[in-house]
Every structure is written in structure tokens, then in C-alpha cells.
Amino acid sequence: MAEAPDPEHDALFEIVRQRYGARLTPEQLDELRKIVRGQVEAARALRSVRLGNADEPFQRFAAYRADDPLGTGSLTLPSPQRGEGKR
Amino acid sequence: MKTEVVFLPVRELGELVRTRQVRPVELAELCLDRLERVGPRYNAVVTVMRDHALAQARRAEGEIAAGRWRGPLHGIPYGAKDLLATAGVRTTWGAEPYREQRFDFDATVVRKLEAAGAVLCAKLAMIELAGGMGYRQPTASFTGPCINPWDVQAWTGGSSSGSGAAVCSGLVPFAIGSETWGSILSPAGYCGLAGLRPTYGRVSRHGAMALCWTLDKLGPLALTADDCGLILDAIAGPDPADPTTSDRAYGYDATDRTGFRFGMIKGVTEGCEVAVAENFTRSLETLRTIGTVDEVTLPDLPWEQITRIILQVEAASAFEDLIEAGGIAELTAPEVRFTPYARDVILAKDYVKALRLRGVMAKEADRVLSRYDALVAPGRINEAPLLGQEFRSAIGATAKDVMGAIGNGAGLPAICVPNGFGSRGLPTSIQFMGRAWEENGILAAARAYQSLTDWHTRHPAIGP
User: Does A69 touch chain B (CB under 8 A)?
Assistant: First the structure.
């Protein structure tokens, strides 16, 4: 049975197709279409949960300066030692 | 030296080393020989570090002979998942595009284990890029699928696959793995080992491949829960090079206790294989001899979607260059050569919503866990999948894993230990998940369970 039309899914899948379609086979595009549909469904599950204005992302952020005598313990910066670069 | 020594827990082995009944050099040579000779049977090893290991072992032997014993890991061989940087030795991340990658420094975990006197013998195989691209079958590493020592037709689990295979087959007494979602508990469960996922921020990830900045954790796989505690004691602690590490001190408390309070999420065995559910029911009977077991309910929230979206977006960002340049076409698993492209269209607003819901998740999990020493559940829903089999995965949305979604999404500690065998003769497991920073509580519970069972004393027939 054909899946019901879903403009959000179709629009998002079209971005993937435009961006990477030249690299992909028809079978891979079909697979990506299903994956995007799953992503949209997951996103809708999140959107269905109501949160309050004060419910912040559970992600620490701190203003940064290199010479901060108190340190910046809550700061996460991209780190070459975490794997970026140095190949 | 008798080969049986390789199946001794670290605590016992450490005592033999301390009392000089076993010499670190002969122990390292035994493990190196097994890594070179037995390791290939299971595709467990990427690089054997013979010269490095023997140098560390000779140093340990000299120190112990001079009366300078550093602790229970002194002179004990181990292996590291090949996503931990080690100076002078390639660090492949299990992936073809990085198979010659080298770093000029050691990961903090490697340095801490060196300070504890442990002997690094090998870099161990893993699922390419720690599975973050969405693999669906065991052949997702440039070194081939890791083969389960309990059954050569079965997989070890992943992504810390080689860490599981190596400890299970007695190549090394313990190994370090990583978990973003399931990558320590999966190989521990499928291989019949103890695997500890520490609290997020307990162990420095400096020098570890970044897959998901807010989900990645490092932890041990070993023969017993007690061993996991000894190893965590050595690797835990703050690290200026990883600002996500906590200043909270950690010391392993091996004091035995009883009177535990266990919780069990309602319906936690739904979707499990029959033998997994039966073994879990038997485990609950054992747990009731050392405590109480209550059924608990959680609010109806999209737990798995929260953690999955965070994982998919962060992994896509961490490997943005590789994905956009088409480098993923060089990966081994056919499905991951193109499926990450879909992540380009997960909306920023939805990712932020997942981060906001993560706060709800963390509070709800803590509210429930504050009444218990641990939530218990089957470690895995099944016995190890067959090598040629596509498996079900919560990350791929083809299986449920509420415990894994909450545990990893909220950064909570969990330990998995064996609790029997399934219909195909492969290990099944039980997991204990605790409040943040309560590793000692779940370790005590798992130790108490292991004191009443003998599943952890059984090992596969490896042969010479």
C-alpha cells in the first residue's frame, strides 16, 4: 500500500536528493526516503511533548576567556586531542 | 605458566603479581602470544604492541621486586579499543579511511592506566567509527566482524567488539571500551563479561575518538564486577584536557553489603527472546534474596527518540567532513556508505527540543532512581546475533531499549553481568543502572549477584 503524502517528509527528502543524489543509486535513494520518514516521525514524537518556556536545553554553556583565573570547567571546545586533525 | 591464569580475575591476578608468584614479564608474554596466535581467530586485534608491552612489564617487574607495588593493576596486561590515541601506534577507529592514522600522544585513560602500572598489550578491534553511522550487521569494521568465542557463528556485539572478544577468549584480563549507546553493555552481554558504563564525565575522553560529545563514555570490560571497580578506580577523575570531566572524587568501595532496593521498569522484558526473559526472571529470584524488587513505571515520553536524535545529529556533525566529501563510501558496511546523508535534514529545532527533553529525562530518571540502588533489566534482548544476520537496533529504531536510551541520554552508570545461557548456548545478561555518580552502588549490587551465581566463572573452550 502506498504511503500517505507527507509534505514535510517530501521536502526534507528532496534536500537529500538534491544534495547527494548524484552519488546514489535508486535503491539507496529509496532507503534514504525511508530513513528520512523515520526521522520525521521521531521529530514529531518530540514535538508532541509540551515544554514550558523555562525548560532549557540540558547542555551547559559558559562564556569563555583564555586567561580566566577561575578556569572554564564547564566549557567544551573542539579539541584536537579528541580526534580532530593530527591524522 | 599455566594458560588457566588468563581466566583469573584481575584482583586474583594482581595478588599473584604482588606476591611475586607470577612475573609481569611472563604474564605479558603469555598475553602477547595469545593476542598474536588466538586473536586472529576472532578478528579481535588491530595492533599487538609487543615491544611496548614488554618494556612496561619489565618496568613493573623491577618496581615490584624493589617493593614499589602500585596497586592491583600493577603488571596486569590489558587491551584498548582502537579509538584511544596511543603515541607511536596507529589508531584506526576501526575504519578504512583512518587505518593509517597516528597520534603523537596517549589518551588520558592510557596514561592513567600506565600510572597504575598496567601493561598495554594491544589495540583492539571495533565497529567502524564506533557504530555512529548506523550499521546494521556485524561486518562493519575494516578488520572484519568480531567472532564470539562462545560460538564462531555468532557476533560479539559492538561497538567495543574486540574488547569483548579479547577478554572473553582470555587474550587479556581486561579491556577498555567506549559507549555512546550500548557499545560496552552489548559486547559484555553477548560475551558473558562484566562491562561497566560509568557516569558521563567520570572518565576523561581526552584522546578518544569523538562520536557524540554529550554521549560518549569510556569504561572497562572484565571478568567480574569487582574487576570493573578496580579498573574504574584507576581511570576515573578530572582532566583539564576534557572539560566535561567532573571534579567529583571517585574511590572504589569493595565493601560487601545487602538490603538492596531494586526497581524494574514495567514491561522491561517485552520484546526479549524467551530464554532472556526466563533467565531474567530467575535473576530476580536471586536478587530477592539480597533485597527487594519493585515494579516501576515511567512517564510516557519518547525516550528513544530523544537519545537517537541527539546521537544522529552529533555523530553527523563530528564526521561532517567525511560525510560531505563522500568519504563514507570507503567504510566497510554497505549501509553506512550512504545512510548518514539523511541526517542533514534533522531540523535544528528538533535537536534543541531533544536537548530540552533530555532535561526532563534526567529529572524523571533521577526521581525514580533516588528510591532505588539500581534499576534492573536484561542486559540484551537476545543472544548474540549470527555473523551474517542483520540485527535489530534501538539506534536504528528497529528495537526498543528504554534503559539504554535513558541511561545514555541522561549519562547514568550501568553494569552488565552474565546471568545464564540462551537456547543457542550463548550468554545472556542482566544490567544494573544507578543514579549519576553511584557506580559503587551498582558495583556492590552486581558483586552481590555474582557472589550468588557462577555464570562469570564459565568460559568458552578456546583451545590451544
Answer: no
Count of structural domains, chain B = 1
Please tell me the distance in Å from A45's CA to the nearest CA on chain B. Answer: 6
- The residue whose grid cell reads 536537548 is B355
| C-alpha atoms less than 13 angstroms from C-alpha of B154 in its C-beta half-sphere | 21
How many CA atoms lie less than 13 Å away from B150 in the CB half-sphere? 30
CA distance A26 to chain B (A): 12
Encode pLDDT of A42-79 as tens digits. 999 999 999 999 899 988 777 777 776 555 544 445 45
The residue length of chain A stands at 87
How many residues appear in chain B?
464
Domain-located, residue B449 = yes
Give residue B411's domain range: 3-300+357-457
Residue B294: the pLDDT is 97
Please state the ipTM of this predicted complex: 0.89
Whole-angstrom Cα distance, residue B401 to residue B379?
10
Is B217 in a helix, a strand, or coil?
A: strand
Residue range B193-207, pLDDT digits in tens: 999 999 999 999 999
Question: Which residue(s) pair with B260 in the sheet?
Answer: B291
In a domain, B317, yes or no: no
Q: How many Cβ atoms sit within 10 Å of the Cβ of residue A36?
A: 27
* Cell numbers that stand for B362 in this block: 534526567
Quick check: A23 and B329 CB within 8 A?
A: yes
pTM above 0.90, yes or no: yes
Distance CA B228, CA B197 (A): 10
Q: Which residue of B has its CA nearest to A42?
A: B305
CB B384 within 8 A of CB B155: yes
Assigned domain for B225 exists = yes
- Strand pairing category for B260-265 and B291-296: parallel
Chain B residues with CB-CB distance to A55 below 8 A: 356, 359-360
Residues of B in contact with A13 (CB under 8 A): 345
Q: Which residue of A has its CA nearest to B105?
A: A81
pLDDT tens-digit series, residues B276-335: 999 999 999 999 999 999 999 999 999 999 999 999 999 999 999 999 999 999 999 999
Query: Is B80 part of a structural domain of the chain?
Result: yes
Q: Which residues of A touch B345 (CB under 8 A)?
A: 12-13, 15-16, 36, 39
Nearest Cα of chain A lies from the Cα of B50 at a distance, in angstroms, of 23
Q: Cβ of A63 under 8 Å from any chain B Cβ?
A: no
